[in-house]
Amino acid sequence: MRHANPARGNTRKPFGFKRNRLPDPAEYYHQQGLKLTGGGEWKSAVCPFHDDTKPSLRGRLDTGGFRCMVCGTYGGDVLAFHMKRYGLRFIEAAKALGAWEGGR
Length: 104
Fold this sequence. Notes:
22% helix; DNA Primase, Chain A; two-stranded antiparallel ribbon; alpha+beta
């Protein structure tokens, strides 16, 4: 994270990624149209990354982690999912999810 440098007279506010501002995984995946079903830590859904007819995507509602057992797409949180699904770079996806503060 970058901070203002008072020694140089720079008074810009800190900016950067704020993980605590990422949306709740259960709410986010629901908004994305995924119907996660099943018991246990890993839930199942139809994978949006390939032409899927049977649930092959596994997702965790506590961390947001996901993995498709067919196409191999995976990631550790909703930010990674958003990046892959919409072809966004890190900062763009963080901004779209409200988890980026400040410049750039």
